[in-house]
Amino acid sequence: KALVGELSSFSRSGIYRLPGVVNAAFVDPVRLLNFSYSRYRVSASGYYCRTFDSPGKGRKTNKEVNDSSRSKNKRKRSRSHDLNEQEIIAERRHQEVRPLLLKAHEALSGTAELLGFLPTLVRDEESCLDGGGLEQNFVELGGLWQAPLYEIVLCTEENTNEWQEQGLQHEESSGSTVAPLFNNLINNNTTNDVDAEFVNRRFVLPRQCSFHMSDLRQIHDLIPGSSDQGFNLIVIDPPWENGSAYQKAVYPTLPNRYFLYLPIRQLAHTDGALVALWMTNRGKLRSFVENELFPSWGVTDIRTIYWLKIKPDGSLLGDLDLIHHKPYEYLLLGYVNGKKVVPDCNQNLEENQIFISIPGAYSRKPPLAKLLVDNIPGPKPSRCIELFARELIAEWTSWGNEPLRFQDLTYFVKR
Ligand code: SAM
Q1: Is the CB of 312 under 6 A from ligand 1?
Q2: Cβ atoms of residues 14 and 368 within 8 Å
Q3: pTM (global) more than 0.95
């Protein structure tokens, strides 16, 4: 059936402005990511491959019921007695934003055409490309003594087709470039997706992307030679410690004080940079960021954007009032070097914007830059960087100890 109106525009843009609520939108990360690729598409099944509880399915065992009522009691206790000062402030903030989140969710629930479309977002018509075997653990490899010796082979645009026919085991040839994988800035300077090979696995590099796979200790290599070569948008999703055993298994975390050393001022463009920092709901973290981290980075004019998570059936991912595992996360945004106001840039970033999406697997954050374009200062096209990235974006620089994580061919389908 042909899509019409807002749904048709959503199908192209990945952004659905919710009716009747200012500054609230539903987004599809897969559609947003797809703007980076020409020969491939991000696989929806690969992106959304987490399992969601569905009504009537996966009924709880008695143990789970007991555990859940025990933790509910614990939550109730902590609500009445155990909240420390920072948690009380966080709870107050939650109560302030709660009506806005509910209003945005109600608007989504009342948009029948979108609700009906949601289940189709999370699966593909075609199956994912088979990467074959186990995915690469870059965090582990980067820590080995051999790390400086590992090389990646980039297949340039001209011999892409030939390379695809040959499959893996590509030998160095005139149409390919070999580069050290770790502690090295690797670029795809072409205007097309480029295939890459590393230890018998294939990866996709979107057009004009750069990445630097290294530990925090090497991040200074990214500081541009001159500050007018700095970045206008800096997105940061730090590996915050949060005490969750599950998260520890997903990626290594770092103590808060380490993030004070991120060279944000040096990375920022002289004409200003918008800094977008992913947060957790812990009250203690908010106070660290407001009182220590942002002042040390020189970030001012702080605003909040909320990310509300839903299931493919449109319901909230969990109870809105849980103390720690709320069905939303948020970003704090602010400006560095923002004194030079650029005429085209709307530095009056709206407070309390809300966007809703179905969360991807492996705690992936949705790519939001498209929602922020009007607020990025400095010359166009904006120079954008993501710190602690696990994926690449066309025309962006990505840095972290595993920026190729979700570039494995397994996460893509052919266009
Ligand atoms: N934004 C990412 C996404 O949506 O997929 C998630 C980033 S995750 C919160 C933090 C990342 O920081 C992980 O990939 C982790 O491996 C990486 N990391 C942890 N310690 C690091 C270090 N010392 N140097 C560089 N990266 C590190």
Answers
A1: no
A2: no
A3: no
List the residue whose alpha carbon is closest to atom 27 of ligand 1: 401
pLDDT digits (tens, 9 = 90+) for 176-187: 899 999 999 999
Q: DSSP class of residue 128? A: P
ipTM entry: 0.99
**Ligand 1 midpoint to CA 388 (Å):** 4
**Percentage of the chain modeled with pLDDT above 70:** 81
Instruction: Tell me how far the alpha carbon of residue 22 lies from the centroid of ligand 1, in angstroms.
Output: 33
Query: Residue 87: CB within 6 Å of ligand 1?
Result: no
What b/e sequence results for 10-45 when a residue is b if at least 16 CB atoms lie within 10 Å of its CB, and e otherwise?
Answer: beebbbbebeebebbbbbbbbbbbbbbbebbbbbbb
Pocket test for ligand 1, best of 251, 285, 364 (most atoms within 8 A of CB): 251
Please give the single-letter amino acid code of residue 27: V
- Establish whether residue 139 lines the binding site of ligand 1, counting it when its CB lies within 6 angstroms of any ligand atom: yes
CA dist 383 and 397 (Å) reads: 8
Give 243 Cα–ligand 1 centroid separation in angstroms.
16
Write out pLDDT tens, residues 293-323.
Answer: 999 999 999 999 999 999 999 999 999 998 7
Strands 412-414 and 353-357: unpaired
